[in-house]
Amino acid sequence: MSEAEESEPVCVRVKGAEACVGPDGSDRPGVTIEDTAGDRRHAAVEYYLSGYLGTKYVIHNLGREGDVRGSREIGRIVTFRAALYKGNHRVKFSRWKTVQNVAKYPVKRETRVTPAGARARAEACTSTRRAATTCFAERRTYVFACDTSADKYQARAEYFVGGDPTARFEIHQLAGVNTCGKAEHGELSVSMYRAAVFDDNHQIADQLYKYN
Length: 212
Description:
Layout: H1 3-6, E1 10-14, E2 17-22, E3 30-35, E4 42-49, E5 55-61, E6 68-71, E7 77-86, E8 89-93, E9 97-100, H2 115-121, E10 124-128, E11 132-137, E12 142-147, E13 154-161, E14 167-173, E15 179-184, E16 190-199, E17 202-206, E18 210-211
């Protein structure tokens, strides 16, 4: 491949949303999601890192048509799709696409972090009933979403970074009790956050957002 081809992002689309994964030298570095329609729905990108299906990441683009939101912190392997949401309900999505070796410095997945370990490493934590915990630290910012109950429900972290209210980040922890999923955000600090519990896409429990 030529340098120009190597710097091109790989994208998937549905009507109203375009998700891309690209190298640092591209016009869409990391994983990004663009809202391509001026309607009441918003675009989102859903993705897994490094072939691990126990943690799913979602970035909701709450900006206007043409706005792009995303994260530079991606793994060696990224499996992603574009989706369209109306409120908290997903109404449309593309096929999954997998790309490899896009990032020059990929983040490493952590699959052995327990809720106790996350609390010990973090500067702030919050929990909700039905047993979901969200923890984060601000130096080279990372966020943990931990499932602390042996039931059928999923723990989620929902948060905003860098004071931007137009991009909501989510970590869906799917691996079960005493497991945590981790996301990294570089120099961007967490500005608002909460823990939540879901049954598939139905919210079971949560708390009010807290401001950092």
